[in-house]
């Protein structure tokens, strides 16, 4: 099977916190099962910049080739295949949101977003504008803790990031989308969360331990979605 879309992700932050597996399972559509690391479930907040977006056989399209994205994700299995499940994906490009919702069955939402860099630090803000969607805001400052790439990522680092498919459900049908990318060049990350109404519904509390990783750049290839059920 040939890829249908390529993307480059830049200045990407992974902020993860642990949640109760039973609670997480109650939030997932059947037949997805919460994937656990040493008995613990995790949810992630992931802001990043996306560019060089292009469909196979076409050049990058000016109205679609660059956007900001912020997603809330978790980790699941289906028939023992591990993957990612998205609770929400906020994006800055209206056309991109419409395409993703219509053709890829993903819960994208239109948002007003800005990202600015000062040195290695990124100031990222997002305010959801999507009609009928729950309101959600975020103001976060983040970057790498050092210039060094983690030479031997931990088992948890790899479990959270090396995922090569995603699952989504729409109109009673479950779909799987596969993707390919080279292994992440991860760095330890840092962040300061100044305003946040997007993660509290997913049980992130101020006292929670946050597992934070940063990646400067990653090239990805996406393959056609397959209906599983």
TrEMBL record:
The protein, known as: DUF2071 domain-containing protein
Taxonomic superkingdom: Bacteria
Organism of this sequence: Metabacillus flavus
Annotated Pfam families: DUF2071 (PF09844)
